[in-house]
Structures are given as structure tokens and as C-alpha cells.
Amino acid sequence: MALWNAATTEADAAAAYLPNITDDGGTTWGMSIPQRTTAVKGNMTSNEELSALDRILLLSDDQQALAKSVQRPMGFIFATFAIPLALCNVIVFSQRNMRSAPGTYVIALNVGQITCTFLKTLEIALTEMLDEPTSHYGFCFYQSYVSVFGGLLVAKRGSFVILCLSSVERLYAVLRPFHIQNFVLSKHPVPLVLAVYSLSFIWNLYYLTMFRLAMVADGGKTACAYVLTELFLKDPDLMYAFGLAARIMLSYVSLATQLVLSALTVWALRRHNMATKHVQSSASDDIKRQQERQLSVTLLGASVSFVVLSLPRVFLNVFSSAFPEFFRGKKYSNLFLVLDDFTFNLMVLGCGVDFFCYLGLSSRYRQTLISILPCKRFRSLVSDSKALSVTVDSELSTQ
User: Fold this and answer.
1) Cα torsion at 318, 319, 320, 321 (round to 10°)?
2) Is 331 helix (H, G, I), strand (E, B) or coil?
3) Is 254 exposed, middle or buried (0-12, 13-18, 19+ CB in 10 A)?
4) 213 - beta bridge partners?
5) How does it sit in the membrane (predicted)?
6) Tell me: the pLDDT tens digits for 305-322?
7) What is the Cα–Cα distance from 95 to 367, expressed in whole angstroms?
8) Helix (H, G, I), strand (E, B) or coil at 280
9) pLDDT digits (tens, 9 = 90+) for 331-355
10) Which residue, of 231, 251, 356, 398, has the greatest Cβ tally within 10 A?
């Protein structure tokens, strides 16, 4: 099941379902999952035949299994903490005093992260729990249509676009703080969020038309096979085009744009601080600018951490897409599996790290969190982090 796991855990999982050509010129399409695994299982050669690079990159089945035994439990531990922390963000920003356009984008972003992380973690758990999971039609259906399509394609890609909308809204707020209420991203956040996830759903529908599930006999056992549909075979180039466009526009371009927006926001914050340093204004104007600046800094820190933890998985997918023979061939399949688990764990961390950014940088977030915490001990711990926010905000004010 190695190739199937490697394929379906990529951000653009649909690309892995395209034909994989074997050494004898045949195709692994039409095979059941165990047969496909055998066809691409990594082969180790003797040390005399290996180059210096191959000695580093080639992993044996035992080495891959050892890495898996360490990384899979870590992923479950990270998910156990990250998902509740992301849920905490949703609860806090849904409170009456936190409702705003930035809060709406934060809720939408965290919902997408929670969906993707939970569905993928559940898939991995089922893989470990079930005996020959590929013989269960229900598991294959969940893996293909729920975890991959609903989580990795629709929710994850949609969250990248939501993050860009939030960053554009914050950049405008820093540049024109007194006109932010009339900005379209601030006036209509809910319709825009619904439109983004709807667009992500529609754009990724190509994935559902590529194959169908079928139970076939495989060496006396029943296994699930993924059979290409007539629609795909009729015009495979069109499916390639949809997959490539979705991957580039919703994933790569979104993250690259986010990096540019983050740099522009830092520049705008410094420019704003220098421009208003010696300007006399009313107390209400100063308070409004201070609130917009602090909110922008908080969301900037959260978005940068999210992007940094998401980039390794994106780089892995870009490399595997540009050089499909490198990872999806026989030679480096074990290396791909190890890197796939590692980048997934980073993605899970990105689901929960936002909480600490909001907690440390936003006094308003802390106050709201304290008001809803049922335990006095937790309230005191959250209150103790106030000094960090005051220090960061005072440093920004003096720049």
C-alpha cells in the first residue's frame, strides 16, 4: 500500500492517480492496490553500486518502517493538541466582542485547518487499525472521497485563499485605517468566505470524475481497485489541465502571494509608525490606529507561522510534480513516504500554532479567552502572558 499512501497524502492527490509507467513499459492502472504496491516497491542495490548521494537518499524498508514508527505517533500527538487549540480560536473569535471581518477570516481559516487535519489523522488511524484496509470498500471510499477530496483538496486549498483575503484586508487596514469599514473585504467577509470554499469545491470536482471504486479478486482475496472512468479516458488532457490549474492557483500562487503580502504588511507597519511618530492627533484616532496595528501584527504573526509550516509540504509536492520519476519510481519511494509523514506533522503543527500567536500578541484575545475559561487556574496562566503582549506592542510603538 506504499504508493497509494504516498499518493493520497499529497496536497494535489489527484496528480498521483495519473498513469504510473513501470520499467517494462506497462502501466499500473487497473491493478488493485496490493498489486500496485508490489509494482513500485523500492529496491536496494549493493553499496558498490551506489553513488554518494544515493547512500544518503536511499532508504531500506526497515529504515522507512522505523521512521514511520516514530513519526506516526508524533502526528497523533500533535493532532491531539492542535485540533482543540484551533477549536479554541473558533470559539473565541465567535464571541460577540470579537466579531469582525478579521475574526470571520480567522474562523474560516481554522475551520479549514481542523477539517483537513482531522480527516487525514482519522485516515491514518484507520490505516493502522484495520487489517488490510484496502480490502474494505468503506475505507477506500472514505480515503478517496472524504479525506483526500474534502480535506486535502477542498478544505486545505480553500484555507490558503482565505489566508490571502485576510492578509489583503489587514494590509489595507494599516495603509488606510479610517477607511477600512468601507473596504469590500471588510464589509462582506461571510459571503466571500462561502464563495471561496464553494469555488474550491467546484474547481476540484475534476478529481471525482477521474476514477471509480470497484472490488476485485486479487490472489484469492478481495481488494479495492481504482478504475479510470470513461470521462477521464475520453479527454485526459482536460483532467491534467484542471488538476494543474487547481494546484497552481489555489496552492502555490496563494502561498507565494501570502509571503509577498506579509512583507508588504511589515513595510506598511514600519512606514505607519514613522509617519505618525510626530503627528498630533486626537485620542480616539490614536486608539483606533493602535487597535488596527495590534490586530495586524497579531494576524501577521499567525499567518507567517502557518505559511512557514505549510511550505515544506508544498515544496515536496512541487518537486514530486516536477520530477515524478524521482519519488514515484522504484528507487526513492521510501524516502517519499518518510518526507510525506514529516511534512504532514508540520502541517498539523500549523493547525495549532496560531493559538499561541493570538495568546501572546492580542490582549483582547486573552481577555475574551479568560472570560470563557471555566477553570481559575487556566485563567491565571492566561493572565500571566499579558506581559509578552505589552512588551511586543511597546517595541512596535518605538520603531
Assistant:
1) 50
2) coil
3) buried
4) 226
5) Multi-pass membrane protein
6) 888 888 888 888 777 777
7) 11
8) coil
9) 677 778 888 888 888 888 888 888 8
10) 251
CB 15 within 8 A of CB 321: yes
β partners of residue 214: 225
- Residue with grid cell 505589552, as numbered in its chain: 390
β-bridge mates for residue 27, sequence order? 21
257, 164 in Cβ contact below 8 A? yes
Give the whole-angstrom CA distance, residue 206 versus residue 154: 12
What lies within 8 Å, CB to CB, of 14 at 6+ separation is 153, 204, 206, 207, 210, 239, 243
C-alpha cell, 258: 501570502
Q: How far, in Å, are 259, 346, 367 from residue 12 at the CA level?
A: 21, 17, 40
- Mean pLDDT within 81-85: 91
Instruction: Classify residue 237 by burial, with Cβ atoms within 10 Å: 0-12, 13-18, 19+.
Output: exposed
pLDDT tens by residue, 20-51: 322 233 333 333 333 333 333 334 443 445 45
